[in-house]
Amino acid sequence: ELHKLSELHYLSNLGNVELTLTFDNGSFKFNVSPIQAAIISLFDENENEITEEYIAEKLSIAQSDVKEHTEYWVNKGVLIEGSRYSRIAESIRKGTPGGDKSGIATFYYTPKVLKEDGA
Question: Cβ distance 66 to 56 under 8 Å?
Fold first, then answer.
């Protein structure tokens, strides 16, 4: 007798991670989802700004999901969101159909000091 194959589904909101993040003005505790913890851990490896595209690639999630999961950190003041023109020249040069027409890339970076009302 054949059995139906089981499917494995990633439950992104299952469980919590307690983190302590250290800034120039002290340490702050956060209780977050595993994906939020994974996102903030990428900033330990990189002292510069990190793009949405980089986060999506490193964590194997859709770039559209990055915005949703970084919103918590932005609202807490742990990440600062910015955007700038980036891939316009490359898209034009390659003539990529359906490419990023706006050429705007969103990036994130961490402040040296966390405002205490953010935590």
Answer: yes
